[in-house]
Design brief:
The chain has 167 residues and is α+β, with helices and mostly antiparallel strands. It has one domain. The chain has 5 helices and 5 strands; from the N terminus they run ααββββααβα. The chain has a 5-stranded antiparallel beta sheet with strand order 1-2-3-4-5. Strand 3 and strand 4 form a beta hairpin. Helix 1 packs parallel to helix 3 and helix 3 crosses helix 4. The N and C termini lie far apart (71 Å). About 9% of the residues have low confidence.
Length: 167
């Protein structure tokens, strides 16, 4: 193998090797950032919120005049109002660790809820009367994690028995 062909082979593989190096570095950097963000979140939670977070992965924030909101471990529509079943979504434009997002939403809801609701999107996530209030955050997360049921076409299901050997 000539020096030129060896150089071409190495140079041909460099972009892939660099992309792999960057992806691994980004992943390790994101994991470290999430670890630091989670530590900060735990320091900022009240004892009751910390207990809920350790047990269920989410915690409640009480907003005077608006009710109780659960902040769920999700990057979208993760603020659930228990009384109405509505989920709210207000996230930054850039990617941040999930724990930082949850902490930011907690602080804004506790200190300036009008600013949160002025920018948040809202959608109905569940019907409040059908699910026990204490189970609502877990039900929302379970529904989001479950697989979509397979679709069956009408011709695949028949209530009329038939024989395959009909001539």
């Amino acid at each position: 193998m000539s020096l030129r062909s060896l150089a071409q082979a190495v140079l041909g593989r460099l972009p892939r090797a660099w992309a792999l190096h960057e992806a691994l570095g980004n992943r390790l950097g994101l994991e470290a950032a999430e670890t630091r963000a989670r530590e900060l979140l735990l320091r900022m939670l009240t004892p009751t919120q910390e207990e809920d977070f350790q047990r269920h992965g989410c915690f409640a924030v009480r907003v005077p005049g608006r009710g109780t909101f659960w902040i769920l471990p999700s990057t979208f529509f993760n603020v659930l109002q228990l009384e109405t079943g509505h989920c709210y979504c207000a996230v930054p434009r850039s990617e941040v660790p999930l724990s930082d997002l949850m902490l930011t939403q907690k602080l804004v809801l506790e200190n300036d809820p009008n600013a949160f609701f002025a920018v948040a999107n809202r959608r109905a996530e569940l019907l409040p009367g059908l699910v026990d209030e204490r189970l609502r955050p877990q039900r929302v997360m379970q529904a989001r994690e479950s697989e979509t049921p397979a679709r069956i076409r009408c011709f695949q299901v028949s209530m009329i028995p038939h024989d395959a050997d009909v001539s």
